[in-house]
UniProtKB/TrEMBL annotation:
Disulfide bonds: 33-46, 36-54, 57-72
Name of protein: Tumor necrosis factor receptor superfamily member 14-like isoform X1
Signal peptide from the UniProt entry: 1-17
Gene Ontology molecular function, alphabetical: transmembrane signaling receptor activity
SMART domains attached to this UniProt entry: TNFR (SM00208)
Gene designation per UniProt: LOC117541504
InterPro entries found in the cross-reference section: Fas_rcpt (IPR008063), TNFR/NGFR_Cys_rich_reg (IPR001368)
Biological classification of the source: Eukaryota, Metazoa, Chordata, Craniata, Vertebrata
Any single biological process term in GO: apoptotic process
SUPFAM superfamilies xref list: TNF receptor-like
TNFR-Cys repeats: 19-54, 56-98
Keyword Transmembrane listed: yes
GO CC terms in record: external side of plasma membrane
All copies of domain TNFR-Cys, residue ranges: 19-54, 56-98
Length: 212
């Protein structure tokens, strides 16, 4: 029954053009010739006296199905500069398969592997890594909660708690820790700052008086 449908199908197309059997292709001379096998392409069409002459795909090209073509497909290039490496080498019958290198994730995945890769997002100071990046997913970052800091954008660490005998010399932020010190040192720093401010004001006053 299937053969009947195939024949009827060919008959229906005869008015539009040549209908060849499976594993055959139509030439420009409107002749049906046997297809070349995988890994090869047509070098010369068949004639009434000889079959199709096929030639093997050259290095860097491939053909993955029976065909009547005169050019092989170009192998996919796995560019390390764009985060890719060769997982499976291209052969006469199969294309190369690319995979991502460490530190990258695949943005476009198809039957031949990864075709477009991108670097993992780098979390900035004040953030931590919520989800580390994989070969298929980008890294996810989140800000440090209040009372924590991240100097390098990896983990959040809680602020140092100054002891009862210490004074807070510098408040903590999302990127820096609290700085603790002796209370006497803080008192000294306040006196020094006040003294410098007083001297500056006196000098400014003297300068103004001289101008008058």
């Amino acid at each position: 029954m299937l053969a009947v449908f195939v024949v009827l199908g060919c008959v229906s197309f005869l008015a539009q053009g040549l209908c060849c059997r499976p594993k055959e292709y139509s030439t420009r001379a409107e002749q049906c010739c046997p297809m070349c096998s995988e890994g090869t392409i047509v070098q010369r069409d068949c004639t009434s006296h000889s079959g199709t002459r096929c030639s093997r795909c050259k290095n860097g090209t491939f053909m993955n199905h029976p065909n009547g073509l005169d050019k092989c497909f170009t192998c996919t290039s796995c560019d390390s500069g764009h985060g890719l490496f060769v997982l499976h080498v291209c052969s006469e019958t199969t294309d190369a398969v690319c995979e991502v290198i460490d530190g990258y994730f695949c943005k476009h995945l198809d039957v031949t592997g990864c075709s477009v890769a991108q670097k993992h997002t780098q979390c900035v100071p004040g953030q931590r890594i919520k989800e580390p990046g994989t070969s298929r997913e980008d890294a996810q970052c989140e800000p440090c909660p209040s009372g924590f800091f991240s100097e390098h954008g990896v983990n959040c660490t809680d602020w140092t708690a100054c002891s009862g005998t210490q004074a807070t010399l510098r408040e903590g932020s999302s990127i820096t820790d609290v700085v603790c010190g002796d209370s006497s040192r803080k008192h000294y720093m306040l006196i020094l700052s006040g003294s410098l401010l007083f001297v500056s004001l006196v000098a400014l006053g003297i300068k103004v008086i001289k101008k008058m």
